[in-house]
Amino acid sequence: MSAAAALLRSHHLPVTAQRLAILHAVSRNPHATADLIAEAVRGELGSISRQAVYNALGVFAEKGLIRRIQPSGSAARYEDRVGDNHHHLVCRSCGQTVDVDCATGETPCLHALDDAGYEIDEAEVVYWGTCPRCLKQKK
Question: What homologous superfamily is domain 84-138 in, according to CATH?
């Protein structure tokens, strides 16, 4: 049994070729949009509806199998790096998104001054800048 199939079963989700292909596409294409994931799945299976991809991504994110991120002004993106509190760096020019591990040590910006009674379990930080490839093109 594949790791993806075991993951689906452990979350009481039926194992289908479409769901396995979607999980594989997310794994192979971190930070991809649903449309890019659908293209990758079509390359593997031949056909799948856009709605089926969106539905599966929604269920996977809800169950914690994948993570949905949506930087300001961007379509939602999906990744399979879950279970940690990492952040993202987004290029303002091309939109490339990469993972950034949390800073260690004193990080006051990650602690809410007033938690308003919430039990905070995650902080989301998006760093914005220009990637090396876009910087090189500007020169």
Answer: Ferric-uptake regulator, C-terminal dimerisarion domain (3.30.1490.190)
